[in-house]
Amino acid sequence: MIASMNSTLGVGIGSVRIVNQMGFSGSGRTQRIVEHFRCPDGFLDFSVAQGLSPESSFFRFHHNLTYYGRSRRGDGDSSTHDLWHGDFRELLTPDGKICLPFDPDEIIDNLRLEKYVADRRSSKLLRTAYYLVRPLTTLSMRKRIQRFHARNWRSFNFPQWPVDTTVENTCETLLLLSMQAKNIAAVPFVWFWPAGAEACVSMTHDVECQTGLDSCDELLALDDSYGMKASFQIVPEERYHVSPDLSLIATMRDRGFEVGIQDLNHDGRLFDNREEFLRRAALINGYLREYNARGFRAAVLYRRPEWLESLEASYDMSMPNVAPLDPQRGGCCTVMPYFIGNILEIPVTTTQDYTLLHVLNQPSIELWKTQIQLILKKNGLASFIIHPDYILEQESRSVYEELLKYLRELRSRANLWFALSSEIDSWWRTRSQLRVERHGKSWRITGEGAEQATLAYAKNVDGQLVYQMAGRTATVQ
Q: Could you give the count of Cα atoms lying within 13 Å of 92 in the half-sphere of its Cβ?
């Protein structure tokens, strides 16, 4: 069930997984939680225990749920240690404030930026070797190499497969803790999606080769037949020839689709070193302007989020939610967009079609359906990468059509927002400036674009956080 009017989210104290890694200095701020909910000031009030460990390590925040990061340890604690057992009173200070054994902003930032991931130097060497020999390999050979790389993927227990919502769980748990400590029954906030939509769905198509470019017209027609609009990511150099008049791009836009830039030449070397990245970023920025594109995605979802500031894109789409099967493993552990500096990150929250069909060898939408339902339970974003290069073969096309049919069915029975990437970018920027303010005995959303927003309440119902829609204004509770 999608969490909406009075549905329980199941994020009660004692049922939350949190994993984090130290990477930012902080003093117990709650900025990331406020950004997540867009709730008024004063509802969140935490302190952070003195003496956080100088180094990051694994720890448990509740019983056997394992986390990672800087934390406050007791004397004689081992490297894996319990910090909290589920009773919020264990965390109360004498003045009634929640004192956390970690910094919540650090946790969220380091999840979103994958600071928990181990040293990537060895994976870089393997990637370099792979792309050197790639021109000499066939598709069948590449599939075998990729399956070999992913052979132990089930041994990775974090991020949690097939969808990780650690960031959402963290925000919900800490809001509920604060409500319990302050004896607050409900917190007003700006609902996550415009017009009260319960969740969001977004389709993207990465055009990797000439065959994919030649198949775009057919894919446009297929999407249109199911009422689906998508963003097409174009590789601007080397992979194929884009006509100088950009007629294909104009056709896409005329039909209600949109275009983004995918890497520079898709050779897997964009992030090899900072100097080369800056050289390529300047070229990518030129193509963003030439194509009048706002969005960027790196090839194969290779990424270094701390370098994104050099791009002139408004949004990036290179961060997977969880990626045990990808060449670059990790994941941002959230099903919501978030800002990296001035760039909005729109994460990839479902398995790519190539991974599903050729690495997992599952010609079925069952995994996608499972992921969609897990995302909808968190009122999140279900975003897809479908490649025209692979999807229009008979078996692959039938799988994609099953997905389109399933999404069309969901749309008919649930209030879902089917949005282009640029629309998500515009809304999330609008939402980030909205405020919930008290007006007499009512709460009201204020700010430019408030007419698109819906006021909601996060309620404490028997130790569970429950979301309830309230419209744009509601009586103070």
A: 15
Q: How far apart are CA 403 and CA 410, in angstroms?
A: 11
3-class secondary-structure state, position 456 = strand
Rounded-to-integer distance, Cα 242 and Cα 91, Å: 59
CA-wise closest residue to 342 among 287, 294, 286: 294
Query: Does the CA dihedral 132-138-144-147 come out positive or negative?
Result: positive
- Helix ranges, 187-318 (H): 210-214, 216-225, 247-254, 274-290
244-256 pLDDT per residue, tens? 889 999 999 999 9
The 10s digit of each residue's pLDDT in 74-93 is 544 444 456 666 667 778 88
3-state secondary structure of 370: helix
Of the candidates 277, 268, 171, 284, the residue with the CA atom closest to the CA atom of residue 236: 284
The DSSP call for residue 348 is B
**Other Cβ atoms closer than 10 A to 63:** 10
Would strands 199-207 and 416-418 be described as parallel, antiparallel, or unpaired?
A: parallel
CA distances from 156 to 120, 144, 323, 324 (A): 16, 20, 10, 7
Among residues 69, 19, 110, 171, the alpha carbon closest in space to that of 340 is found at 110
The burial of 215, by beta-carbon neighbours within 10 Å (0-12 exposed, 13-18 middle, 19 or more buried), is given as buried
State which amino acid sits at residue 220: L
* The pTM of the whole model exceeds 0.85: yes
Q: Sign of dihedral through CA atoms 168, 172, 177, 178?
A: positive
Q: Are 382 and 372 in contact (CB under 8 A)?
A: yes
CA distance 235 to 216: 13
Whether residue 54 is preceded by a cis peptide bond, meaning omega within 30 degrees of 0, is no
From 387, 383, 411, select the one nearest 400 (Cα to Cα): 387
